[in-house]
Amino acid sequence: MSQWKFQISPNERNVIGVGYRMDNVAWTFEKKVNDALKYPFKFHKINKLVLKLGPSNVASPFYHEGPLGVAIKQVPDFSAEDYVKLSEQDKEQLLEKITIESFCWILENFEDADFIRKGLIKLDWPIP
């Protein structure tokens, strides 16, 4: 059983799931990614990475590391309304694409992000 260290959350409430949670496709996807990520990350003082999907209603930095060890990366070009119309397979493919792009951004911007590379290997996803 993995520790909860990766989460996907929409910036819009109650469009996809309840509150800021996603649907079962995203929950299953999160579990798969969580199982692949080695814990602890040994990345700054981060113990959880959250991808916030869609435009934010408040001014939010593109990437932020909070004092409680939570890193939040914004993914503004996501539409919750379009997502809910997709098939389960297309939803998973979209979440995978977003996650790979986000992971690649982290690898490009931080020298100590080896936990991402190890996760990509376990998931059998492309490594930049």
The proportion of strand residues reads: 15-25%
Q: In the residues, how many domains can be counted?
A: 1
**Class derived from helix and strand content:** alpha/beta
**Percent range for helical residues?**
25-40%
What string, H for helix and E for strand, traces the elements in order?
A: EHEEEHHH
- How are the strands ordered across the major sheet? 1-2-4-3
Q: What is the average per-residue confidence, as pLDDT, rounded to a whole number? A: 90
pLDDT < 50 stretches: none
Outline type: globular
Please state the CA-atom Rg, rounded to the nearest Å. 14 Å
What structural keywords apply?
single chain; 128 residues; alpha/beta; 4-stranded mixed β-sheet; globular
Layout of helices and strands:
Layout: E1 6-10, H1 24-36, E2 48-53, E3 63-65, E4 70-75, H2 80-83, H3 88-109, H4 114-123
Parallel strand pairs: 1-2, 2-4
Antiparallel strand pairs: 3-4
Describe what you observe in this structure.
The chain has 128 residues and is an alpha/beta fold. Helix content is 38%, strand content 16%. The protein has helices at 24-36, 80-83, 88-109, 114-123, and strands spanning 6-10, 48-53, 63-65, 70-75. The chain is globular and about 35 Å long. The mean pLDDT is 90.
Give a quick summary of the entry.
With 128 residues, the protein is of the alpha/beta class.
